[in-house]
Amino acid sequence: MDNKIGICHWSLPMEGPLGCRLAAIIGLDGIQLDIGHSSRGFMLSRDFVQDAYLALGAKYGISFPSITIRELDEVAMTDPEGTESRELMNEALIKTIDAAEAMNIPIVMVPSFVESEITNEEEFQEAVSYLQYGCDYAQGKRITIATENTLSVAEIKRLIKEVDRDNIKLYFDSQNHFLHKDYNIAEILEELIDYVCQVHLKDGKDKDLSGALLGEGDTGFYETMEVLKKHNYSGWLVFENYYDRKPLSLENDNPVELIKKDLQTVKEV
After folding, report:
1. pTM reported for the whole predicted model
2. What is the DSSP code (8-state) at residue 63?
3. Which CATH number characterizes residue 196's domain?
4. Domain range for residue 136?
5. Contact 102, 139 (CB under 8 A)
6. CA distances in angstroms from 95 to 10, 83, 130, listed in the order given
7. In whole angstroms, what is the distance from residue 231 CA to residue 99 CA?
8. pLDDT band at 169 (very low <50, low <70, confident <90, very high)
9. Which of 91, 159, 208, 223 maximizes the CB count within 10 A of its CB?
């Protein structure tokens, strides 16, 4: 495939703006960023941090296709309005959208896992409210809010319908639904392709998160890629394998070589 290919900054074997240089050396086109943890003041919300990424991105030809809030795994966006946790995640969302606008990043990804997983109707409605809050704040800024979750096809369609905003989309992942729900990834992608704005690529064996090179796990990677090709998906493909962590790191103690192998695999699909 000839899509632009990026990597999550937490999948690179180094942190910080100089990761742009490494991504360029590998042959990647971009890096998905994270706003940072509240305990450190949402680091990427600071203009000097943004400026460092933008300067090195320009120097090495690296773009930033999306930005996310990884702390949502630790603090629930699905807690009711007025709670300390919800207020903190509201702040995180606003700061992330502001950073996206300042850095010309088109997509803010909102993950719904662990503490922010949607498991019942009450949490579903809180997720709708949270996504509406983000969409409304992002309106007019040329920014899409992208939900990433493991809801069923019907539930995802309902979520997007109830959010009812023209800047809500789905961030699709090539492992998550199989890992958490045993769903067939290619089949659900076929049903959801019209909602997808960007795609994470990762694989795994025996329920290991991000633990196998693309196509060497049990998630049906090649079938998923065929669905993307069938529908002429032209958006970004973003690696989220954990190249410097076990079990994947056991295959090669140089994570750069593992990333290059995944890059070659995708280019050959």
Report:
1. 0.98
2. B
3. 3.20.20.150
4. 5-268
5. no
6. 19, 18, 14
7. 32
8. very high
9. 159
